[in-house]
Amino acid sequence: MAQRKARRSASRKKAAGKRPAPKRKATRRPARKAAPVANKRVAELEAENRRLRDEVDRLRAELADRASSVGGMPPDEVPPPEF
C-alpha cells in the first residue's frame, strides 16, 4: 500500500512540473528590400509589359476594324471567294 502512495505522489509531481509551453502568435518577418539593380530590372520589365499590352490592344482594334469591313465575320470564318 505504501508503494502505491509513493507512486501516486511521484506521478503527481511529474505532472505538475510539465506544463505546456504558452502559445505564441505567428509573426511575419518583414520582407527584405530588393537590391537597387533588381528594382531597376523590375521597372524595365513592367514598362515593357505596358508597351506590349498597348500593342496587343492596338492590334485587336485593327483586327476588329478589318472584320467589320468584311461583314462582321472574324477572319477565320470568312468564306473563301467563289470563282
Describe the SSE topology.
Layout: H1 2-17, H2 36-70
Radius of gyration: 37 Å
* Helix residue percentage: 55-70%
Number-wise, the strands total 0
Oligomer description: single chain
CA-to-CA gap between the ends? 114 Å
Q: Give the integer mean of the pLDDT values.
A: 76
How would you portray this structure in words?
This protein is mostly helical and 83 residues long. It has a domain at 36-73. 61% of the residues lie in helices and 0% in strands. It is built from 2 helices and no strands. It has helices at residues 2-17, 36-70. The longest helix is centred in the middle third of the chain and has 35 residues, at 36-70. It is elongated and about 115 Å long.
Briefly say what this structure is.
The chain has 83 residues and is mainly alpha-helical. It is 61% helix and 0% strand.
Supply database-style keywords.
61% helix; elongated; mainly alpha
